Amino acid sequence: MQYSFLNTINSVSDLRKLATDDLPQLAIELRDYIIDIVSTKKGHLGAGLGVIELTIALHYIYNTPDDLLVWDVGHQAYPHKILTGRRQQFKTNRQFGSLSGFPKRSESEFDVFGTGHSSTSISAILGMAFASQLQGEKKKHIAVIGDASIASGMAFEALNHAGVTNTNVLIVLNDNEMGIDPHVGALKNYLTSIKSGKEEPGNNIFEDLNFQYFGPIDGHDINVLIKILTKLKTITGPKFLHIITTKGKGLPQAEKDQVTYHAPGLFDKKTGLIKPNFNTNLPPKYQDVFGLTLVELAKQNEKIIGITPAMPTGTSLNYMLEAFPKRTFDVGIAEQHATTFAGGFATQGFVPYVAIYSTFLQRAYDQIIHDIALQNLPVIFCIDRAGLVGNDGATHHGVFDIAFLRAIPNIIIAVPKDEIDLRNLLYTAQFSKQTFAIRYPRGRGVHTKWQKDFKNIEIGKGEIISEGEKMAILTIGPFGNTIQHILKNNPNLDVAHYDMKFVKPLDENLLHKIFQKFNKLITLEDGAVNGGFGSAITQFAQGNNYTNKTIKVLGIPDQFITHGSVEELFKQVGLDEIGLYKVISNS
Could you give the angle at which helices 23-41 and 222-232 cross, rounded to 10 degrees? Predict the structure, then answer.
């Protein structure tokens, strides 16, 4: 396609020079451009395609960046980035050293608030609106939030506050009935009743919260959007605009299969068909090992329950949902609720497995402490996407869970080295009588034959992988496979390797043997070095008077790691195979 309008837009000032009659054609070109780039570079697709017209209209009518615009989550921010001076850079989106896949304050003045997790936009825009009032500024303030995100508790807290203010805020509800998976819950049903006209007059929840409500309107009709936004710009106080959109709009396959095309990988831009991976003899994804194993366990134990906050596909809990729909719960974007909900099950003798990404587990920290561990409830947290996750970047890396969980009493923290370990830990956890956390990475493991008979793993028991005399390397998680590979290829290193498997409790008997034999030790983890596994080992050494030992702690340094492939990021922090070999050989 010839991008006759899009190629002229290097800033929003260029956009505002266009006639309104030209905007529908710009929308066509922008939609095609995103499909063109994402089909070959990967990234989030469906969400951005669904807000093309909205993005154009917002930047056309409002004086951004002076008027402040926040995109909730940020999956849908690609059109925003392209129209705000980053069109030529967009082909480098999510690549190492280039544009972030999410709004990022350090990247552009148009990204007024960094996002990556859901349901934060209304709180952020309300803070900005009050700041404008205090400084005597006449700015406009807009937050765009989806129907899945607005159901989260934090969004409701912000709506509750905003509704009793006189701030100049506009909340745009992008209602497409989707998060990453289909939106669930009573609010979804309520929004459906509004759209169908079945809602009783004068009984609008947003009006009851003191917002001036407008809509629902067609979010793909750019002329209607221009007209309503022009009107809203003149109205003061809290306002709520309800628009109806289709996730994946403009690509038939993406409209039809909105879950897959949320982030489809490589696909043919003309047909929309996803390009297959012809290597069928690959090890499984860790998430699939979790999902398939849980189904096996649930067949054996009728007390097993599966819970996830809006990520059944992303965590592979969808296997459990298909096999045992009455024992599987997608509670929506509500990590806090998911955690305490699981605690309620545990009090009644059930065995809840909570599947959640590491980066999102952060959102439920108080509930883990207060509602689960304090009461010593046997909830099993299955922590997906632990460690560096790659191109989604700093908002999604799962590097803090070891450090923040270690401080909590009554909790077991296990880190499997491979798929077989994960399978056996999932089996073992159901018999534990206390809170249990199992963390595993994104991506694939190392074994193609992993569905072996279940084996009970002794809690707090490490494993000797290889003997050596020069020094000891203590690992947790998949880094153990990397060290095995290094030592196998370099037997002259004469290094002992121990897979500790548990961060809490530590295998103290094994540690005493290690410290009594070796003067030099290296600890290695795919989590934050501050407060992590290495910190636990140094704490053990200090507490047991092994003060004459040299311990080198390797892991994710004390900084937020950028986006890029996992291989590039490990190289950046010196944790790739070459970097680790250098550390070992020079120690």
Answer: 110
